[in-house]
């Protein structure tokens, strides 16, 4: 069985009457890149703080690399590199000095720290600016320095809370690619949170859609829409034609509709002008096209609308819908 890096069971956190995280179950395997996706206020940061043992849990448990976060937060801290939403640096220090400062805080011997720092600065693409003051760094450079801070501890798990905030699209892409490269190279488990559905999905092995403290769906992006819109994951529209030169009359439309409805996992069938709309739980286009032709009609077109990320976005992520 794969090794679990993060194992969350029945995790719940309340702020007064408000339930910020509601009975969350989640397992993240070693080396996996997981995206925790949810709109603002979903409870992502609260979840992360509980994973790190930085905030009290009301009920449930969190284990990181097998260690209970609420009981042994210091041990967990040794295993996990955490990049919070707002990273603070000493602006009058250079990038290298900032990184060396973090290394000292983590009791890394000076010589070893220097070597590691230079190597990591190169890895995150800050080699050329390592001796410039951090006050001159762009947002993207600061994020990469934050990642360097995280990496110098040589963590088994990296947790990044909204790491792409304030980056331009190109910066987002580069930053995410950097994380993926490092994770794959070093076998590091990565958890990131974001309210940007479209950015994060490009790089994650799995994502979870987290809304109002609850995990609504979890898995590969391609399976999410089916989980969330399971009643009618597919909408198929087709155009049919009666071919006048045919000798045999086609099956009456009503009867064909009955046959369409009888196809397993078809939820709804509607006739429209010169065609039909079918909603189904799975892709039944092959069955539909065969049925139409067998019933004596011609198929003008068959188009498939699959529910996807945009639908998830409109349903759950538009800010005003969740307020
Ligand atoms: P996210 O990171 O997904 O935006 P948070 O975890 O920050 O969400 O917040 C989840 C909910 O808990 C929000 O409704 C927020 O207002 C509330 N919350 C977060 N932190 C506190 C706190 N320290 N005290 C009271 N309420 C809080
Ligand atoms: Mg947050």
Walk me through the structure.
The protein is of the alpha/beta class and 323 residues long. The protein has two domains: 4-227, P-loop containing nucleotide triphosphate hydrolases (Rossmann fold, 3-Layer(aba) Sandwich), CATH 3.40.50.300; 230-305, Alpha-Beta Plaits (2-Layer Sandwich), CATH 3.30.70. The protein is 35% helix and 29% strand. The chain is built from eleven helices and 14 strands. The strands form three sheets. It has a six-stranded mixed β-sheet with strand order 6-7-8-3-9-10, sandwiched between helices. The protein has a four-stranded antiparallel β-sheet with strand order 2-1-4-5, covered by helices on one side. Strand 7 (157-161), helix 6 (169-186) and strand 8 form a beta-alpha-beta unit. Helix 3 crosses helix 4 and helix 5 (139-151) runs parallel beside helix 6 (169-186). The longest helix has 18 residues, at 169-186. It is elongated, with a radius of gyration of 26 Å. It binds adenosine-5'-diphosphate (ADP) and magnesium ion.
Features:
binds adenosine-5'-diphosphate; Rossmann fold; alpha/beta; 6-stranded mixed β-sheet; Alpha-Beta Plaits; 35% helix; 4-stranded antiparallel β-sheet; 323 residues
